Amino acid sequence: MAPPRTRLQFSISAIFALLILPALGAIIAFSYYENVRNLNNVAQRSIDRARDEAVRMGADFFEPVAATIRLVAEVATAHPEFFRTEESRDTLYAALISAPQIDALYTSFEDGYHRVVTRMDEDRRRSDSRIPARANWHSSYIDAYAAGAERARHRTFFEKWPDVIGGYTEPSTFKVRALPHYNAAHEHSGFAITEPIINPDTGYPIISMAYPIRVDGKFGGAASANMTLNEMSKFLDAHKASPNSVTLVVDDLDNIISYPVMAKGVRHSGSKVELAKVSELDVPQVVKAVQLHNTSGVDRFDFELAPDGKEYVALFSKIAGKFFKKWEVIVVTPIDDFVGALQQTNRKLIWLMAALVVLESAMIYIMAKKISRPIEIVSGAIERSRSLSFGQQHFPDSRIREIDQLQKATVLLDNALRSFSVFVPVGLVRGLIESGKPLTPTVEPRFMTIFFSDLESFSTIAEQLSPHELSEQTSRYFENVTVAVTEEQGTIDKFIGDSVMAFWGAPAELDDHVYRACLAALKASSRMKRLNVQWTSEGRTPMPMRIGVHCANVVVGNVGSPQRLSYTVMGDGVNIASRVEGLNKEFGTSICISDAVFEQVADRVVARPLQRLSVKGRHGEFLVYELLGIAGSDDPELKASERDVVRCRMTTAAMACLSSSRFAEARDRYEELLAEFPDDKVARLMRDVAAHQAGKRDDLT
């Protein structure tokens, strides 16, 4: 089974598409995956940097504060009475502003004396109506326990240090040992740091750190600082790994130490403010990351968050240092922050690629059509030439040299085949083309129908007409016969003078070739009669035509030599067909057929018997018929007239009598036929034959 064939235009388009489009797709895919890989590396570095900065920020958060309170403690150790004077508040202010995370700096002593300098913000101003609205700084001291009932807290407020803008004094029952970091510093004789607690004045968490003050070698008090986590939150918010990344600090109890948004680091339980838990955050990716970390124990991992299916990277790192207990930095970053823009760009690239594919495909299609169209036209012309369906060939101009040469060669081939088929039977040429084999002398036996036609009194007519008129009218005659034969799939063998020889049954076999030959004979005769009427009306000389048809077993094939061949039919049947055609002259008829033909188509034609004859050089007799029409046909070219049908019936009855040697009865029937059709030449001839036979053998009548 032959593989399926595709059109050239499609093949060219497919080749271009297979060469260009995969390469384009591969380039885009390679670019995308390389960019993804590079951005993933950038993402990991950014996440690591955010983690490292958070860890470093944690360490830097405590170190400067520790150095500051240690310095204050050393001053207090050297000059115990200094911080009981108003001048000391300038020292505490200077120490306070040394680090932005210090919210309050104070010294506390065993005798209950307490001095502090703090920052003032909106929350603090709102907590006490006595605080001036413009206050930005605050300094106060609490008397020692020795003051007894007169013990008080003396507060001073500043807009700009040291410009005092207000103050007040109020009784105080403050106890130094109520401070947990104070007691821890006393107990450990060193730095002490508390867990985060909520500052009642601000509502936000603070961490307190203390360092002991020694007086005469003994613990005399502590220098302390309250650190707000606000600066840590600002730092985390300002140093994100990506726009939608979240960095937070938590402890081992799931408490949020610092969150980029301060408000999310606390929770309100009625009137009570507490540190928020990670599990209570309304940030699902952080909650999911902590759950996965607690389950797997892995510090770095990727995960997907339902229902939107976004992917995240989570990183957990412990904060090391002498001031830390179990704090941990958590960084959760959406991958889309790094590759989202790339994915969006990639989607645009895909759309761009689709547009380019459409544009490229259209251009490829147009260019392929421009290349293939001339070739397809040439192919179609060659295919038509192969089937001998000749027509006017028109080829578009091509700038491609090879196509132009192919077009010219096709025109030459078409002209050659057109000329060849004029001289050789079309069926033979078609078979020769289909076989692809050269012609050789060869014949084969076959049952065929042979057709002969000629013109009545052609020699006389030729003498009467000029060469031009003779050529024109003869060509019209040949054209009529050729068209009629071709319409019924017959093959023109040759033109012999004014005669035409044709046959059916070769090269192509036909089941009904006898009937088709009869149809061709009737068509050619009818058309020639109409043409003669036209010529007569034009004052021209008519050319009556006579046709003979016979069928027999003959031989057909290529006859001649390898240098010169003729496809023709030979045998006794050809001679009989020629003889049958000649009988028209004796009977005055137009179409004669042999009894062999009549037997093949008796039920389909209207034909009357003429006479039994013998042919010179052939034993036996055969009955000749005049073909009058096709039975039951309404085609004017094929229909037998009522007059012909009656003549046929009467002639058949008379011939039956003649065939059975009832000559007198045959004579009488022919007399009846002549009485109705006095111009019937056949009836007159056969009457004379019957009368002659009856006179010779009266004993039989």
How is the quaternary structure best described? single chain
State the share of residues found in helices, binned by percent.
Answer: 40-55%
Question: Count the helices. How many?
Answer: 17
Largest pleated sheet = 9 strands, antiparallel
- Estimated share of beta-strand residues: 25-35%
**Low-confidence parts, pLDDT < 50 over ≥5 residues?**
none
CATH superfamily heading of the largest domain: PAS domain
The number of domains is: 3
Mean pLDDT, nearest integer?
83
The count of strands amounts to 24
Structural class: alpha+beta
First-residue to last-residue Cα separation: 75 Å
Structural notes for this entry:
There is one protein chain. With 701 residues, the chain is an alpha+beta fold. The protein has three domains: 59-334, Beta-Lactamase, CATH 3.30.450; 436-640, Nucleotide cyclase, GGDEF domain (Alpha-Beta Plaits, 2-Layer Sandwich); 642-701, no CATH class. Helices cover 46% and strands 25% of the residues. The protein contains 17 helices and 24 strands. Strands 1, 2, 3, 4, 5, 6, 7, 8 and 9 form a nine-stranded antiparallel β-sheet that branches. Strands 17, 18, 19, 20, 21, 22, 23 and 24 form an eight-stranded mixed β-sheet that branches. A hairpin with a 4-residue loop joins strand 14 (300-305) and strand 15 (310-318). Helix 16 packs antiparallel against helix 17 (681-696). The radius of gyration is 63 Å and the shape is rod-shaped. The mean pLDDT is 83.
